[in-house]
């Protein structure tokens, strides 16, 4: 299959899974360790149909440590592609795991492929760069390898992950998603990476 190869010595990665070549020539492992941790929202849709949850981005220390430990275990098992997102509140723990592996000499930054995602409250084009900077700050890294729009459904800009209208329904926004995509794929991208 064109654009698909086996990882190994030629990429200096430990895992032996497949990777795919991206349009800019870089290789991305097709199997990733996902850092989403299931959580429930107060007033979720099952308890209150038609209403939107209002959870804020989490920073609980025990959760961050759980993510750190799980990510380190995944790296020890050979994962080299890690998938995260602002929504997951896991990027601080992921970044800690990466830095520990860098510090002990097990891995270098170029050995890893990190994917993050732009959350729905940051779809206004002028908010894309600040959102990326938040992600980089949580990770304490200089760049991410892939930055996706989490989903093509926009919420009004807010501190809450799921902002609500006065009646409790989700506060949707209608930015031009082509402009959002251009801001995510253009302004921050340097040499195939988002910095």
UniProtKB/TrEMBL annotation:
InterPro entries referenced in this protein's UniProt entry, alphabetically: AKR, Aldo/ket_reductase_CS, NAD(P)_OxRdtase_dom_sf, NADP_OxRdtase_dom
One term of GO molecular function: oxidoreductase activity
A Pfam family this chain is assigned to: Aldo_ket_red
Gene3D superfamilies: NADP-dependent oxidoreductase domain
Domain NADP-dependent oxidoreductase: 65-162
Lineage: superkingdom: Eukaryota
Similarity section: Belongs to the aldo/keto reductase family.
Alphabetized PANTHER family for the sequence: ALDO/KETO REDUCTASE
Protein name: LOC100127714 protein
GN (gene name): LOC100127714
């Amino acid at each position: 299959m064109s654009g698909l190869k086996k990882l190994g010595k030629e990429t200096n990665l430990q895992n032996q899974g497949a990777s795919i070549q991206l349009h800019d020539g870089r290789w991305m492992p097709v199997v990733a360790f996902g850092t989403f941790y299931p959580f429930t929202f107060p007033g979720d849709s099952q308890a209150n149909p038609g209403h939107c949850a209002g959870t804020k981005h989490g920073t609980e220390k025990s959760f961050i440590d759980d993510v750190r430990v799980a990510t380190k275990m995944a790296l020890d098992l050979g994962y080299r592609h890690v998938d995260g997102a602002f929504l997951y509140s896991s990027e601080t723990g992921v970044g800690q795991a990466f830095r520990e592996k860098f510090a002990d000499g097990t891995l270098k930054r170029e050995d890893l492929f990190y994917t993050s995602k732009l959350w729905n409250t940051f779809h206004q084009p002028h908010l894309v760069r600040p959102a990326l900077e938040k992600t980089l700050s949580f990770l304490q890294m200089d760049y991410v390898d892939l930055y996706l729009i989490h989903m093509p459904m926009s919420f009004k800009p807010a501190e809450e992950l799921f902002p609500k209208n006065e009646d409790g329904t989700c506060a949707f926004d209608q930015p031009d998603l082509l402009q959002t995509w251009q801001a995510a794929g253009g302004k921050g991208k340097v040499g195939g990476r988002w910095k």
